[in-house]
Design brief:
heterodimer, A: about 100 residues, alpha+beta, Immunoglobulin-like, 6-stranded antiparallel beta sheet, B: about 400 residues, Alpha-Beta Plaits, Ubiquitin-like (UB roll), 4 domains, 5-stranded antiparallel beta sheet, 4-stranded antiparallel beta sheet, 8 helices, about 25% helix
Chain lengths: ~100, ~400
């Protein structure tokens, strides 16, 4: 399984695919501490107006803040609106975890 | 995003609240089934509210049930529900449709003709008569008017108009005119011509540059008399014709008489006025108040306003305001000297209008003729003027 992945990585690097497409890893964009776009997410783990947990391929994104709300939810990306105080990540080291 | 919401507004949407412990799972399954939420809100840890499309409601209810959540429908919004609410008001809908139809029908006709660039009322009325003859008048169907044809007709009929532009804006037909300057008859230098008098007068100076002067200083000439002949007698040759040229100055008299009565009755406005309104629809007048005035003697000023919705959307309805100003007869008496003064002032102001500015006034004569009732003042201006113009032989 690990070998297969390495082969795919090599091909992707040769063809110069962007990482978020090639490796299916999340891409986070933050606009003025109030809007946050998460691409390539897998699901919502927790949703409160002060705390949001979003699951991705390589770990979990925790967002703390006030009046948070989820908007424009599609299968690939999601927007967090509201006053964002802090963001932290819980990365999953083991590949088999997904 | 906004387009999506607009589409859902047209199709109808509902506001729901979901209550339960597994709201995250509910949201995840909704997203995986590609159900679109917006305006999401998380009130408490167990309550979630959002807007969803009407079509998706059944699926959402199923998902909520499988997630062990309670679902509640708060309110229905969007166009289908809005129309449903007004379904019983048939008369309202009918009148709305009727109103729109009337406006559309009205906007297909011409209700105002605007003439730009003409100040002379006479030419204006002639033009209006001309276009009425061509079938274009107030109340005409817009699509049947052939503007190019109309422009051509006017340009053929009238020589004094240099350019005509027409356009239809809303219910307003705008005609723009540029008047042609009357061109003077130009006589070629090669042509033979006489110089003739344009006015009656007494010659004071003749400066002939070419041709034979017929008149001399002190001669009285009438309008049309030849002043300088375009013919030269040769000593050795026969008479030959020339292009005569020269300036002829003459004393010309302008006369104006004014009668001033010693006792005059003048109507003075007292300052009281009243307003009467009426509505005019296609020459059918509706008076909003009694038309009889409470004054005995009065002047009436009538102003007509055309109703319009926008600057170019005229309606076939006119609003008429009649303003009555009360007046009072006051008798004024003048002494003899005052009457003469008033008479000369009046006559002078009239004369100043007729005389061109460049001509110089050499003498002013004032004659008075007194009777018992009035003074007749005669003012004569003596003006030194150039009176010659060229005329072809």
């Amino acid at each position: 399984m690990k070998k297969k992945k390495n082969v795919r990585n090599k091909i992707d690097r040769m063809l110069e695919f962007p990482d978020e497409i090639a490796l299916n890893v999340p891409k986070v964009t933050i606009l003025k501490f109030e809007q946050m776009l998460i691409e390539n997410y897998k699901g919502i783990l927790e949703y409160q107006d002060f705390f949001i947990r979003v699951k991705t391929n390589i770990g979990i994104i925790n967002v703390n803040g006030f009046n948070l709300s989820l908007e424009e939810m599609t299968t690939d990306d999601i927007i967090v609106n509201g006053k964002i105080e802090s963001i932290d990540f819980e990365s999953i080291v083991d590949d088999r975890e997904e | 995003m906004y387009i999506k919401i607009l589409i859902y507004f047209i199709l109808g949407y509902v506001n729901i609240t979901v209550e339960g412990f597994f709201i995250e799972r509910f949201i995840n399954t909704c997203i995986s089934k590609k159900i679109f939420f917006w305006n999401t809100k998380r009130d408490k840890s167990t309550v979630f509210s959002a807007n969803i499309g009407v079509k998706n409601f059944k699926d959402v209810a199923k998902i909520a049930k499988s997630c062990k959540c309670k679902i509640k429908l708060n309110n229905k919004k969007g166009l289908p529900f809005l129309l449903n609410r007004y379904r019983k008001r048939k008369f309202f809908a009918l009148s709305l449709i009727g109103f729109i139809a009337v406006i559309i029908i009205i906007s297909n006709f011409i209700w105002n003709i605007e003439i730009v660039g003409l100040e002379d009322e006479e030419i204006k009325s002639e033009i209006i008569e001309l276009i009425n003859h061509e079938g274009v008048s107030i109340g005409k169907y817009k699509n049947k008017i052939d503007l190019q044809n109309l422009i051509n007709k006017i340009r053929i009929e009238r020589d004094d108009i240099a350019w005509v532009g027409m356009k239809i804006k809303g219910t307003n037909l705008i005609m723009e005119f540029v008047l042609a300057d009357k061109k003077p008859e130009i006589i070629d230098k090669e042509d033979f011509c006489n110089i003739i008098a344009t006015k009656d007068g007494v010659i004071s100076k003749v400066e002939a540059q070419n041709g034979t002067p017929v008149v001399k200083e002190g001669d009285t000439v009438k309008k049309g008399d030849i002043l300088i002949k375009g013919e030269i007698e040769g000593k050795y040759t026969e008479n030959r014709f020339v292009h005569s040229d020269g300036d002829v100055y003459a004393k010309v008299w302008y006369k104006e008489t004014e009668k001033v009565y010693y006792n005059q009755i003048i109507a003075n406005q007292t300052g009281n006025h009243e307003r009467k309104y009426s509505i005019n629809i296609n020459n059918f007048q509706i008076n909003l108040f009694k038309t009889l005035s409470k004054f005995e003697n009065y002047d009436t000023i009538r102003t007509i306003k055309k109703l319009k919705i926008t600057s170019n959307f005229y309606l076939p309805v006119e609003f008429v305001i009649n303003e009555n100003y009360e007046k009072q007869n006051v008798s004024i008496s003048h002494s003899k000297e005052e009457a003469i003064e008033i008479g000369t002032e009046l006559a002078k102001s009239k004369l100043n209008e007729t005389i061109q500015t460049e001509s110089e006034i050499s003498n002013i004569y004032i004659h008075t003729n007194e009777t018992d009732e009035y003074v007749e003042v005669e003012v004569i201006y003596e003006v030194l003027e150039q009176i010659g113009t060229k005329e072809k032989l």
